[in-house]
Amino acid sequence: MTATTTTQELDRMPAEAPTARRPVRGGLNRTFLTIELRRLLRNRRTVVLALIMPPAFFLIFGTQGDYRTTSVGHGNVTAWIMVSMAVYGAMLASASGGAMVSVERALGWSRQLRLTPLRPVAYILTKIVVAMVLGLASVVVVFAVGVVAGAQADASVWVTSALIAWLGSSVFAAFGLFLGYLLPAENVMQMLGPVLAILAFAGGLFVPLTDGLFATIARFTPLYGLAELARTPLVGGGWSWVAVANLGAWAVVFVTGAAVMFRRDTARV
Length: 269
What we know:
By secondary structure, the protein is mostly helical. It is 74% helix and 1% strand. The protein contains 14 helices and two strands; from the N terminus they run ααααββαααααααααα. β1 (71-72) and β2 (75-76) form a beta hairpin. α13 packs antiparallel against α14 (241-266). The longest helix has 30 residues, at 120-149. It is globular and about 60 Å long. The N and C termini lie far apart (54 Å).
């Protein structure tokens, strides 16, 4: 009698709800990172923009006349242009990698990922890491071409300027994400190239900034801070707090913009 009653009571008990499984590190793992990196490298337009255009511009603008024999700080003019083109390449690669999220949204890949345990933070971090990998490759290619083309600088300049150009370009990965969520896929890549070229001119990557109205306006543009900081180890003279403030302010703007657009996009699902 007692055994029968216990069995009936157990049958009436509600089934225990399954425990939700939380992925380790929010789903951030090497497999997902490798897949994202392969998808990025299959985009020939992005690879060409990041790995061919910057060294090509360096060879066009940085090896003219007596640039190799004219000194600038701890190196020569060719090295000055090499660092500028490394910043341009890292920025181009990082922004392009971030902007690819627009294509994923159009294909429905972003919606599919939201059905998995992958956390949004892990997704954003993965996109930034992939973009930074391509940015590092761009910096290495430009510096390798610089060695062959006659760029000369102290050993510390090569290392420090390369690290600043690469790490500082993470700001533009957030810029690419912001544009990727803001614009449709058919427009973002067509707009990104001209926008980045204008920012490069305004920030003094292609033409040295001198005193005057244009130089004053340039201090408020997104690339001014990163370009000045990356060239500081070469030209010397100490760090510019204006450049640090410029880079920090635009980092806040782009990261906040990307976060707002990401939340607005996820709210639709």
